[in-house]
């Protein structure tokens, strides 16, 4: 992806944190019929390789896993917080009028090689994904809450895929190119909107320096 130095993030822990927060990634591969993309939830094992390893499952009826067997190169995109930024929030608008709209966002892109895994691996991935997502709830559901024969039937309908990350890139586009006064205006404007995405982006702008 296009990465101006001002927006590039090289901190692996920061990129991993975004993946864990925004687990629903876009899995992209190149198959017999060209490019294929599916949105699926991932588990990140940060200790499994230098840049971490992604674990996922897809429906057995989804041909992407067969494409990955034939051509294992994969790209996974994790979209973080994003928000439209109106130039009306900039102090520069009042000073010169020389401003245009933009979009702030955070994103991680991970490239690696995919491998289709066995049933024992798949059972562990299901448990790990469930625990990661259900732990956010006051009364978490567990795989063991469902009948074992039902879970076994469901497991036969999916395929596990592991992707060792070989290259990972982070981009935090958060008004770093604007003056302190303009950034303050962006924060105030987002906070005035007040919804979850706006408040999250306001915090990112506040925390992100100009480099």
**Stretches where pLDDT falls below 50 for ≥5 residues?**
none
Helix content: 25-40%
Number of strands: 8
Order of helices and strands: EHEEEEHEHEHHEHH
Mean pLDDT: 96
Overview of the molecule:
The chain is built from seven helices and eight strands, in the order E-H-E-E-E-E-H-E-H-E-H-H-E-H-H. The protein is of the alpha+beta class and 211 residues long. It is elongated, with a radius of gyration of 20 Å. The relative contact order is 0.20. The model has no long low-confidence stretch (mean pLDDT 96). It starts with 7 loop residues before the first strand and ends with a helix.
Summarize the structure.
By secondary structure, the chain is an alpha+beta fold. It contains seven helices and eight strands, in the order βαββββαβαβααβαα. Strands 1, 2, 3, 4, 5, 6, 7 and 8 form an eight-stranded antiparallel β-sheet that branches.
Tag the structure with descriptive keywords.
elongated, 211 residues, eight-stranded antiparallel β-sheet, alpha+beta, 8 strands, 7 helices, single chain
Write the layout of secondary structure elements.
Elements: E1 8-9, H1 12-21, E2 24-31, E3 34-41, E4 43-45, E5 53-59, H2 64-70, E6 73-85, H3 91-95, E7 102-116, H4 119-134, H5 148-155, E8 158-173, H6 180-193, H7 196-207
Antiparallel strand pairs: 1-8, 2-3, 2-6, 4-5, 5-8, 6-7, 7-8
């Amino acid at each position: 992806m296009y990465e101006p130095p001002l927006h590039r993030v090289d901190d692996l822990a920061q990129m991993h944190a975004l993946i864990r927060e925004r687990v629903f990634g876009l899995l992209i591969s190149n198959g017999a019929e060209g490019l294929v993309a599916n949105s699926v939830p991932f588990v990140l094992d940060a200790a499994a390789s230098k840049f971490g390893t992604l674990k996922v499952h897809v429906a057995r009826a989804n041909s992407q896993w067969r494409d990955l067997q034939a051509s294992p190169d994969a790209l996974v995109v994790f979209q973080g917080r994003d928000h439209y930024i109106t130039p009306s929030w900039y102090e520069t608008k009042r000073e010169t009028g020389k401003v245009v709209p933009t979009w702030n966002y955070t994103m991680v892109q991970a490239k690696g090689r995919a491998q289709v895994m066995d049933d024992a691996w798949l059972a562990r991935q299901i448990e790990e994904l469930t625990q990661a997502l259900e732990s956010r709830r006051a009364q978490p559901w567990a795989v063991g809450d469902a009948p074992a024969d039902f879970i076994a039937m469901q497991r036969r309908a999916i395929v596990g895929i592991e992707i060792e990350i070989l290259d990972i890139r982070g981009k935090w586009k958060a008004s770093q190119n604007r003056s302190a006064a303009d950034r303050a205006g962006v924060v105030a404007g987002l906070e005035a909107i007040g919804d979850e995405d706006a408040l999250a982006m306001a915090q990112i702008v506040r925390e992100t320096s100009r480099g």
